[in-house]
Each structure stands twice: as structure tokens, then as C-alpha cells.
Design goal:
Shape: elongated
Structural class: alpha+beta
Low-confidence stretches: none
Largest sheet: 7 strands, antiparallel
Order of helices and strands: HHHHHHEEEEEHEEHHHHH
Strand content: 15-25%
Mean pLDDT: 82
Length: 375
Amino acid sequence: MTRILDRYLIRQSLAAVFLGALLYSVLGVVSVTLPRLQWIMGAPVGPVLGWLALQVPTSLVQTLPLALVLGVLISYGRLAADRELIAMQAGGVPLRRVALVYVLLGLGCTVLSLGINEYVLPRTHGQVATQYWQLTSGSSGLWRLAGQSILVDDVSLHFASTDRSTDELFDVRIERWQGQELLVLFAERARFEENGIRLFGYSSTLIDFASLGQQHADAVEAYGQLLRARNEPAGEQASLLVSTSESVDELVARFSQGGFEDPVSISEARERSLDEQLSAADRRQMRVLYQRKLAEPFGSLALLLLAMPLATRYARSRGLAFGLSLIVTLAWYVLMTVGQLLAQSGTLPVWLGLWLANIVLATVGTVLLQQRRAP
């Protein structure tokens, strides 16, 4: 009997959640696309549709908690309005047994969002940025990075210009600090490969700044201590591969100023938040990103706690369900935004600022549930 009831509740809720996910995801993609519409006008339809499809995972993670709210308000509210919840209780099925199905659905949405954040978004974010520049300028977007000092792993990359047709870099400089020693690589040109950056026409110089505090007999000895090594390539065709963990797509997404999110997974954000080589401001920014990537998926469970009592009290029609979902959505986004601003400014601890929306709404939902159970 309970299995039949579970299947019935799942069918009722999944249809509504799918509707909400489709609606909110499309709205999310459209909101990102509209400000850029003037730049992609005239581009081929096929690549534009592919570019829009790549944005769906990002929009899905951000809107899945809201879709769950809409689904619960519609399905659970209909059960309450049609007296089906009362009939289930009369048949010996307690409300907590009915609610368990929705809790499991919320857990499923949370796990799905966490998986997308960890494994999907780091790839799609970079591809979205690269394809945007392909659509608007005919190149990957590396040209937007020319003249900047770009942090790639533990090295700083700088190049003066690029060939937009081949993505080849010119007048390249790579710097790496280790303590007070600075290794500088110069190259006439370079290109990105699968495992790093390959330099052509390169030279390397190792400088030890610690030697400046030492006493030296003459200038020649001082110069020799300061300039520890200088190497030239054996021939004109010689090349050097500098290994990196980041691809062209990831760098373009981070530094091209296209307005796309940083393509960082949950685990990468956590590692960077603990990296002592980053500045305090950069580590705080990574902590904010890490906590947001955790808090957004768990928003499904927090909003679920609020949606269930609202559904039984007020969601007597689909119109009311849509209206309530908009109100809850607005409250969640406002609290999430305010909490993030307070976390970034240091007014609140990072974890508290990013989890503020979930804590507040889950608390309100729990209070409403307790009031309903009270005699």
C-alpha cells in the first residue's frame, strides 16, 4: 500500500518540479543572454543554440531549489485542497510519512546540484566563455587577456599580443617566486597545449634577491650572487613546456571580463581558500565561492521546510502556488545576496553569510510546521 502511495506522490511532485525547473532554467538563461544579445546578433543559429545549451547546467543549479518550491506548493497544496491528505491520515498514513517522500525529493535535488557544481560546471563555464568570444569575435577570447598579469597555478603569465586565428601568444613572460628567488622565462612566442604552455625562442633567468642583504667584496661577486643562472635554448627550434592545470577555456572564463562565473569546482574552491600563497582578499573570495557552491544546493532542503506548511495553509490553487513561489524565491535571493555582501565585507563570518538564507527560511518553515502540529 505504501509503495503505491509513494509512486503516486512522486508522480504528482516530479511533474510539478520538472515544470518549475524548465520554467526557471529558461528564464535564467534568457536573463544572462539578453544583455549580450546585441553582440551575438547575426551569428549562426546552430552555434548560438549550442552556446545557450551550455548555460543550462549553471541555471539549473541556481534555480533547482526554486523549482522544488514550486513543485511542492503545487502538488502538496493540491493534496491539501482536495482533502487527500485527510484521507491518507484517515487510512492510517501519518503526515510525516507523506512528507518523507518530499524530503527524499529534496535530498535528490541537493545531491544533483552538488554533482553538477563539482563535475559539470567547471567544464561548461569555460566553454560558455570561449564560445561567446567565438560568436562575437571569431576567436577564443585569449586576445582579451593580452597585457594582463594572469595567475596560473603558482606562476604569473603575461603576453603582449595574440594571433586571433591561431591563438598563438607573442612577447611572453612567465614569473615564478619561491621564497626570495624569482625565476623568469621569456619567450618570443608560445601556445597552449593540453598539459600546459609551450614556449618557443625562450630564455630563463634565476634571480636571488636574498643576496642583496649580504656583504660582497666587489660588484662582480654581488652580481654573480644576485643572478644565479641564465639559460638560452640550444637551437631555434627548441621549446619548453611549462605545465599548468588550467585550460584556455578556464583562463578565458576567469580573465576575459566577459561576465562569466569562475569555472571552479567545489573541491578546487576549498583548496584555493586554504592556499597561503594567495592574498587574504583572494582567500576570502574563494571561501565565499566555496560556501555559495555548498549553500545553493542545500537551499532545496531549506526551502522545502518552508514550502510544505505554506502549501497546506495557502496554496489552494495553481495561481496561489505560483504567487507563493515567487515570494519565497524573492526572499531567498534577497537573503542570499545580503548574506554574501556581508560575508565579502567581513561583517559576518563567510559561512554564516552564505548560509544565512537557508538558516532563516528553514527556521521559519520549522516554526510553521510545529504550529500546525500543535493542538
